[in-house]
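Pipeline run #58 for the internal structure catalog. This entry was flagged by the ingest filter as a single-chain record with no existing model, so it goes straight to prediction. Upstream metadata was stripped on purpose; only the residue string is passed forward. Reviewer on rotation: M.T. Logging verbosity set to normal.
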Amino acid sequence: GRLDLASVEKIAPAFHASCRRLGQYAGKLQTVCDELVRYSQINENPLLGEKTSVDLKSLLLEVITGYGPQIKAKSLRIKALVQQLEFHGLADQMRGLFDHLLSNAVKFSPDGGEIRVMLRSASGSIEFEVEDDGPGIDEEERDQVLKPFFKGKAAVDLNTDGSGLGLAIVNE
């Protein structure tokens, strides 16, 4: 049969909603694909690239600045205690580490929450700490949270985007 104008007008909102959902699913699939590529590259060749002297403070502040729109949208506050540190390594890997941990903090922080970031030298090591007001990681999930594709209860409950690879990449 043929569709008349009245029938088309009735189904148009549902059609548009289906198209929006399809677009969201495609975006989530792209995120998972990107994370899989990054994870496989790290596992295949963890020393991919040339090590250089990396200004960690500048790199971290650049990553934090990149989250400006999301931070503003959720009315988050950032408190950063960041020492000037040089590191001989791969800038892209350090950027990825900062990015994944800050992404989680922004994603899981409640509106109006606070994210505390610390980067310092301690006993010859570099410490990077991110703390937020989110739900945290259940104690029984802590052994699994660094495994690929694991999504904790908080991620499932909040229906967050993500592949379950972020912390596995940071761990690698």
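catalog note: Residues 97 and 130 are 11 Å apart (CA to CA).
catalog note: The two ends are 58 Å apart (CA to CA).
status: ready for reviewer M.T.
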